[in-house]
Design goal:
By secondary structure, the chain is of the alpha+beta class. It folds into two domains: 49 residues, no CATH class; 275 residues, Endonuclease/exonuclease/phosphatase (Deoxyribonuclease I, Chain A). 27% of the residues lie in helices and 25% in strands. A seven-stranded mixed β-sheet has the order 4-17-18-5-6-8-7. It has a six-stranded mixed β-sheet with strand order 9-10-11-12-16-13. InterPro entries: Endo/exonu/phosph_ase_sf.
């Protein structure tokens, strides 16, 4: 990726800096000065180039998705609001994001919280599930941030419900009020379930669950407690967004019995769970392996489903890019020290079990 100085003229902050530089530099010296920066260089053709360009996440289309629906869905999720048009019929998009670590550890960094908000609003998905979010304002920093974030999303047209547990835990589900209506909500401790109906299809009902499960005990949060005891038949369409760090990560989801009947959206579309840097104990930067000096990586979050067909999912980053990222850049790119998971589904279709089970051999049922 190369560019000229004129290509940067549309960036207001850089434009003002350029104006100041031109007053003190002769013609041609400006580019040479910029090329001395650690992130820029000049190639053999005289163009500026980023030395180590960042990896950009992109949408990956499911191999079983209808090409026309996939193209329309990609445009709808990535286009500017005034250019989006009507959503493709049958499309429901979901974001799952665990923000509990940065909120619970009382991280006082307004710029970091601002970057986190921008991550949530870049893609206007129909549903946003936030694990670890507190939305009551009782004076604590986590409650204040949760209430501020809820107010921001409400101004963007989202409705929401939240649940809080006995150990200062919280989860929240937001939905686009112009696209979905709420039929019912269920709380089980801090776990939360919401039944939603698209305005475009009154016959459709989608159950969305948001939780942070732990190793099962008689009092554990369960999907059956969120979506009624007969969720497997009544709630034919089910999307579960979860922070699975307490189970060792997304690969340990089947420790919870109900998860063994669900399918991972990331694994089905991306052929693997999304990796992300592990947070250091202070939650202010990523953890590093003492032996190698590389960032420690894990896959703590999952998005599981049944009764729908995956259309696309937002890719992760490569292992090499994440492992070698400088520690000061980890929190810059990942303000919550987690990556948001994003996927879109077709509620009018459901993959045949024989096709959907391409990764069944990776599941362990206990």
């Amino acid at each position: 990726f190369t560019f000229t100085l004129d290509d940067l003229s549309g960036l207001r902050r850089l434009a003002s800096t350029r104006a100041k530089l031109k007053e003190s530099l002769a013609e041609g010296e400006e580019a040479e000065l910029l090329a001395e920066r650690r992130n820029l260089c000049i190639d053999e053709n005289g163009f500026l180039r980023i030395r180590n360009p960042p990896e950009v996440r992109s949408f990956v289309v499911s191999s079983t998705a209808d090409p026309e629906l996939a193209a329309a869905s990609t445009h709808f999720l990535t286009a500017a609001r005034e250019e989006r048009g009507e959503a493709p019929f049958g499309l429901v998009s979901v974001m799952s994001f665990s923000v509990g670590d940065v909120v619970a550890f009382d991280v006082q960094d307004k710029q970091r919280f601002a970057r986190l908000k921008r991550q949530l609003l870049i893609l206007r998905t129909d549903i946003i599930c936030l694990q670890g979010l507190y939305t009551s304002n009782k004076g604590g920093s986590e409650e204040c941030f949760g209430s501020s974030l809820a107010a921001t999303l409400s101004e963007e047209g989202y409705g929401f419900v939240c649940a809080s547990g006995m150990r200062s835990e919280g989860n929240a589900i937001f939905w686009d009020r112009s696209r979905l209506e709420v039929l019912s909500t269920t709380e089980h401790g801090s776990a939360l379930g919401v039944d939603l109906r698209p305005f475009a299809d009154p016959t459709c009902e989608i159950c969305v669950a948001c939780l942070r499960p732990e190793v099962p005990t008689p009092h554990s949060q369960t999907l059956s407690g969120l979506c009624s005891s007969d969720y497997a038949t009544k709630h034919r369409r089910l999307i579960v967004c979860s922070d699975l760090a307490a189970l060792g990560g997304a690969d340990g989801a089947s420790v919870i019995e109900e998860f063994s009947e669900l399918h991972s959206a990331m694994r089905e579309v991306l052929v693997g769970e999304v990796m992300m840097p592990m947070a250091a104990p202070t939650k202010t930067t990523g953890a590093r392996c003492p032996a190698s000096g590389l960032n420690t990586l894990h896959s703590p979050d999952g998005m599981h489903f049944k009764g729908l067909a995956p259309v696309l999912a937002l890719s992760g980053h490569t292992e090499g890019y994440l492992a070698t990222m400088p520690s000061e850049e980890v929190v810059q790119q990942f303000p919550a020290l987690r990556l948001p998971l994003v996927a879109a589904f077709d509620w009018t279709n459901s993959l045949v079990e024989s096709n959907l089970g391409s990764h069944d051999q990776d599941r362990v049922r206990l």
